[in-house]
Amino acid sequence: MRRFIKIVLMSLSILLASCTQSVQEDLLGKSDDRPNIIFIMADDLGYGELGCYGQEKIETPNIDQLRKEGMKFNQFYTAAPVCAPARCMLLTGKHSGHAYVRGNDEWGDRGEVWDYVAMAKDPNLEGQRPMPSAEVTIAEHLKSVGYSTGMVGKWGLGAPLTESIPNKQGFDFFYGYNCQRQAHTYYPLHLYENESRVYLENDTVAPRQKLPIGADPNDPDSYAMFNLDEYASTLMFDKMINYVDTIGSDPFFLYWASPIPHLPLQAPEKWVEHYKEKFGPEEPYTGDRGYFPHQYPRAAYAGMVSYLDENIGKLVAKLKAQGKYENTIILFTSDNGPSYVGGYDLEFFDGAKPFKSERGRTKGQLNEGGIRVPLIVTWPSKIAAGSSTDHQSGFWDVLATLSQIAGLVVEEETDGISFLPTLLNQDQKNHEYLYWEFPESGGQRALRMGDWKLLNKDMKKGNLTWQLFNLKDDPSEQNDVAIKYPEIIEKGVDIWEANHVPSHLPRWQYAALGEEGEDN
Q1: Which of 91, 199, 238, 346 is deepest in the core (most CB within 10 A)?
Q2: Pairing of strands 452-456, 444-449
Q3: What tens digit of pLDDT does each residue of 274-317 get?
């Protein structure tokens, strides 16, 4: 039944495309030469970890060049502060009050899902809780109007033997991690190419192992087991370049969901050496805070980011060599704010800058450091080089935007508003509010209304008290002024209640709101 509903929805989308072509033509001019679309999403990359967003230690010249050639968004948000829900909401265009996936759910009732060896033997233990097959993704919308669709990287939205895998959610081609737990090593035993496992020449080294007892943390040989033969990010990049090489003349949509720089700290040696020389001596990380150890943790983290940047430069060079760059729109962002564990030095890199780079305010939190993310968009001859915008938007707007670019306006089926007018320096419809709820990390919810930010934490402990911050005057959310503006709190409560639809799963419900709920 769900599959039938999806087919009906896609048929309606095709009809809608012909009815709304004039909207695209009004913005872009009449042309049958629809652009290629590349959406690049880093993993756990903080708002302040790119040179063009103020980073002073990590080198990102290729991403910075995209910024010089395109538009920088100053007030762009992820839909959730952790992996799976952010990806669901990106692909389906729904905010967290309406989305199916609202938190990370490893679907533990299947068995030993955290057992790396068991997962290697049994694909039934891989992957996260799946989306229903009736969910319609960006890829399906674009595919319905003639786009070839490819994905490389980390999926995290459904186990291999379910209906919720990339090839059954609109992607013609997929190569990468199906399961985000498997992505806790960059030297996995296998990846997936479409629906089949591709076994790699790597030893079995389960994630979260520490430095062996008695090993010398200052001896490079102590870390040999954590640097194996086939590096997943390199394999995925090579497959992506081959996809771009062989796609032909059809317009394409490429979703590059890079696992970098999500921990563990595993970077190509040349980049580690580069930053060892730049940063100098540092204290080894032995694996005591989860994820693999590394002798040079700061150098490794910076090296991962620079390696991603290097590959973005190679992708752009490939597009230019093929004559495709001029007709390609590239969007670069991150799925949430920076981490705070596993050897990553949050204070050293100041990864959430200009927001508070401290635990409890970054990844996993609805503070600005957890949900404000970079967005850079380039489109030669369409977007003004070196431009920037304070337009407030988020992941749920991407589906509406890309659909409008392709001549398919579907924003009434989502929570999104297309920001294509902003890209083209035309009149832009603005959100009255941006909405979040996050049932993990104690239970949280938030709203952005203009300069105002409403925030409520510890809902699982029964706390339903809203805090209020003026982000224009107080971007670090230090001064709660809720007592001074009860009318703004009242308005926010009405908006939140009008948007919140209780989740189908008790783990994503709130007992404090009278829902069934359960402890996370």
Answers
A1: 91
A2: antiparallel
A3: 999 999 999 999 998 889 999 999 999 999 999 999 999 999 99
